[in-house]
Amino acid sequence: MKIKCVALAMAVMAGYAVPAMADQVMPAWSGATEELFQTFVVDEGLKELGYNIADLTQVQVQLAHTAVANGDLTFYAVHWVPLHDTFWKASGGDEKLMSVGTLIKNSLQGYLIDKKTADATGIKYLEDLKDPEKAKLFDIDGNGKADLYGCEPGWGCERVIEHQLDAYGLRDTVEEKQGGYFAIIPDAIERIKAGKPTLYYTWTPLWVSAILRPGKEVVWLNVKNTSLPDAETGNTVVEGLGNLGFAVNDQKIIANTTWLKANPKAKKFFELVQIPIADVNAENQKVANGEKSNEQIMKHATDWIAAHHADWEKWIAEAKAAK
């Protein structure tokens, strides 16, 4: 499958729509290989409902919301609630977008450190890094501050991390290392394998936690109180893990409101399709093990559909009957 990226992003930023064929579905994709699987699963369902699926259009997360709202693209399968609520509102909210079903439940995010350092120092809370002596254990570049392997610029997690560095009084002792997440996180993994103190952000479902296993190689940090940007609310406490500081998220499909109202079959399918988070983790591990071409990930999707044949056929039948 081909992927388009530049032309649409330029058009969205310029503020005009890219015309699409009336019978064509144009999926948005953030560019994260780890999000192709669920997007392909949704694509396959729409194909069975008779839709013509265009090549994926790669677009930055916030612009994906804008493009779907404007009708430049049809749907985006990885809308995190509540993490992406700000992007939702900025793109026109309910008037232009519909959030349908729950594709993946109970996605977690947060900060972790290597277990070796946690056990040796008793560091348990993110706020513990206000102590310069503890923070400098995680210093990589020699400036005395803890280096946090953080969020990719433009993602929803960036807003939370930047807010919390201020809210918890960490600016003097912690700085966020940013870049392409999948370009910087391998360095964090190698540091921990080498026994070096390391502080990083991650989320689930994702293959990182299959390599750096919470409770084994790493531990989740807690926060002493919840502080989210723009007075956002959400459940940040996870049983057995504590207060991770990030709201527990569900991943939903968002679609253009006008298109979805005119396409009840697609709407019903979006409402019904669900992928267990354990299955996404397992697929992500295959990606981490090298099965990461579009063709291989498409096979992951079709294999998953075959393994859930009874549910799949029920979803498709109900969607076809929708009016």
Topology:
Layout: E1 3-4, H1 6-14, E2 24-25, E3 27-29, H2 36-48, E4 52-53, E5 56-58, H3 61-70, E6 75-81, H4 85-90, E7 97-107, E8 109-114, H5 115-121, H6 132-135, E9 146-149, H7 156-167, E10 174-177, H8 181-193, E11 199-203, H9 208-211, E12 218-220, E13 237-238, E14 242-243, E15 249-256, H10 257-261, H11 264-272, H12 277-288, H13 294-307, H14 309-321
Parallel strand pairs: 1-5, 2-4, 3-5, 3-6, 9-10, 9-11
Antiparallel strand pairs: 6-15, 7-15, 8-11, 8-12, 13-14
Characterize the structure shown:
The protein has 323 residues and is of the alpha/beta class. It has 2 domains: 3-105 and 251-321, Periplasmic binding protein-like II (D-Maltodextrin-Binding Protein, domain 2); 109-243, Glycine betaine-binding periplasmic protein, domain 2 (D-Maltodextrin-Binding Protein, domain 2, 3-Layer(aba) Sandwich). Helices cover 41% and strands 20% of the residues. It contains 14 helices and 15 strands. It has helices at 6-14, 36-48, 61-70, 85-90, 115-121, 132-135, 156-167, 181-193, 208-211, 257-261, 264-272, 277-288, 294-307, 309-321, and strands at 3-4, 24-25, 27-29, 52-53, 56-58, 75-81, 97-107, 109-114, 146-149, 174-177, 199-203, 218-220, 237-238, 242-243, 249-256. The strands form 4 sheets. It has a 6-stranded mixed beta sheet with strand order 1-5-3-6-15-7, sandwiched between helices. A hairpin with a 3-residue loop joins strand 13 and strand 14 (242-243). Helix 11 packs antiparallel against helix 14 (309-321). The longest helix is centred in the last third of the chain and has 14 residues, at 294-307. The radius of gyration is 20 Å and the shape is globular. The two termini are 31 Å apart. The relative contact order is 0.17. Mean pLDDT is 92; it is low at 6-22.
